[in-house]
From TrEMBL:
Its EC number is 2.3.2.27. This is RING-type E3 ubiquitin transferase. Residues 398-446 are annotated as: Disordered. SUPFAM superfamilies: Ankyrin repeat (SSF48403), RING/U-box (SSF57850). Keywords: ANK repeat, Metal-binding, Repeat, Transferase, Ubl conjugation pathway, Zinc, Zinc-finger. It is an enzyme of class 2 (transferase). Residues 407-417 have a biased composition (Polar residues). PROSITE patterns: ANK_REP_REGION, ANK_REPEAT, ZF_RING_2. It comes from Hevea brasiliensis. Coiled coil: none annotated. InterPro entries: Ankyrin-SOCS_Box, Ankyrin_rpt, Ankyrin_rpt-contain_sf, RING_XB3-like, Znf_RING, Znf_RING/FYVE/PHD. Residues 321-370 form the RING-type domain. It catalyses: S-ubiquitinyl-[E2 ubiquitin-conjugating enzyme]-L-cysteine + [acceptor protein]-L-lysine = [E2 ubiquitin-conjugating enzyme]-L-cysteine + N(6)-ubiquitinyl-[acceptor protein]-L-lysine.
């Protein structure tokens, strides 16, 4: 009897270590001998074989267990599902497989009542985060709970996934969450210091990248936590000097992702990514100015100086933006087909803030023909011959091709001066751009 028990225990142990090490053959052999072992759990944490497979990224074993009709939502001692462990360890293939097999994305653990979305955000696995969000859009969760509610789901201390991502210095997750409707100014209940916003938590964590993302989405530098502190004071307290400099209410305001863009239907993903990048670059330029002369220099950023240079040299035969005459046209306005650079597109929209008095939000219009902007798409890069053939087209902004004579030598540092100086249109008059609309939709906000 005793022998039998210890034999089962050995087999069980053999099963779990085989799952952990990804030894599919042994797992198969053990389960063939005793199929009931599939439902065994480890002694203390009560992890199932499925948990161990998910946490270790053992996709073949995980698939086999699921095909053997193992419940994908089996929970361990802390009511964690295999899905949560996959999100925690960034095992994207296992996470996707579990979702395919019908794993519930709306389960809460018993530690802090967190979901798999919290886990992905906390541990910074943006691919897993994205996969869970995609699943949420098409799953019954969206119907029963509402997608926005799911994105902003709170744990037992009032922390939404965005709070965790900001605190743990996960800028990519911060961006994805914001992009999916996470509330940028939501306060926690008891997580961190009570009443903390994501910006307070990013200040606590000391991540410039997270702070930049949050500010670009309109996070409020003046919002106070329950003890009356603004994010600036939190950064100071924790000696994150560069963060504090940006959060200092007397520093220049960052550019905020312009609300009119949200009203342009079908802003396609590529165009959006391009514009977002331009916005971030513009804000980085500002940061440099703010930090210049302080003790804090920017940590060498993910900033793609080299990438930008590549684009410029590749694009030397393409069209120069007719507004700033500095950047290459990368954005095309539809339906009219006029083109401009991402920086000018953003400037146009940033300057076209809704009038708070009328509360009426007018989408921006094309600066060339004043027709309303239906879509913004990536401008197609023409090769030389195409462009030459079209040179006779007077109606096309491509006529100004000749102006491309400016060199790009100091482009790296000055490419965003149009935006940061907020006056990319100041040059229009002197440039003979008579075709540009003259009404001042883009005048500075008061
Ligand atoms: Zn431009
Ligand atoms: Zn136009």
């Amino acid at each position: 009897m005793g022998q039998g028990l210890s034999c089962a225990a050995t087999q069980e142990h053999g099963l779990f270590s085989a799952v952990q090490s990804g030894d599919l053959d042994t797992v198969k052999a053990v389960l063939e001998r005793d199929p009931s072992l599939m439902h065994q759990t480890t002694a203390y944490d009560r992890q199932s074989a499925l948990h161990i497979a998910a946490a270790n990224g053992r996709i073949e074993i995980l698939s086999m267990l699921l095909e053997g009709s193992m419940d994908p939502d089996v929970v361990n001692r802390h009511k964690q599902t295999p899905l949560m462990l996959a999100a925690m360890h960034g095992k994207i293939a296992c996470l996707k497989k579990l979702i395919e097999a019908g794993a519930n994305i709306l389960k809460f653990d018993s530690l802090h009542e967190r979901t798999c979305l919290h886990y992905a955000a906390y541990y910074g696995h943006s691919d897993c985060l994205q996969a869970v969000l995609s699943a949420a859009q098409s799953s019954p969760v969206a119907v029963s709970w509402g997608y926005a509610r799911f994105v902003n789901i709170r744990d037992d201390r009032g922390a939404a996934p965005l709070h965790l991502a900001a605190r743990q210095r996960r800028p990519q997750c911060v961006r994805i969450l914001l992009d999916n409707g996470a509330l940028v100014c939501a306060s926690t209940g008891g997580y961190g210091c009570p009443g903390s916003t994501p910006l307070h938590l990013a200040a606590r964590g000391g991540s410039l990248d997270c702070i930049r993302e949050l500010l670009a989405w309109g996070a409020d530098r003046f919002q106070r936590d329950a003890s009356g502190r603004i994010p600036y004071l939190v950064a100071l307290k924790h000696k994150h000097g560069a963060c504090a400099a940006l959060l200092n209410p007397s520093s220049a305001e960052p550019l905020v992702w312009p609300s009119p863009l949200k009203f342009i239907s079908e802003l396609n993903q590529e165009a959006k990514a391009l514009l977002e990048r331009a916005l971030m670059e513009a804000n980085k330029e500002r940061e440099k100015k703010i930090l210049k002369g302080t003790a804090y220099s920017l940590p060498s950023p993910s900033h793609s100086d080299s990438g930008a240079d590549d684009n410029i040299s590749e694009a030397s035969d393409t069209e120069l933006c007719c507004i700033c005459f500095e950047q290459v046209c990368t954005i095309e306005v539809q339906d009219c087909g006029h083109q401009m650079c991402a920086q000018c597109t953003l400037a146009l929209c940033c300057h076209n803030k809704p009038n708070p008095a009328t509360a009426c939000i007018n989408p921006p219009v094309c600066p060339f023909c004043r027709s309303s902007i239906v879509r913004l798409v990536i401008a197609k890069v023409k090769d030389c011959e195409d462009a030459d053939q079209e040179i006779g087209d007077i109606g096309s902004p491509k006529m100004r091709k000749a102006r491309r004579s400016r060199n790009f030598s100091n482009e790296g540092s000055s490419s965003f001066k149009g935006l940061s100086a907020m006056s990319p249109f100041g040059k229009m008059g002197g440039r003979g751009s008579g075709r540009l609309a003259t009404e001042n939709e883009w005048v500075d906000k008061p």
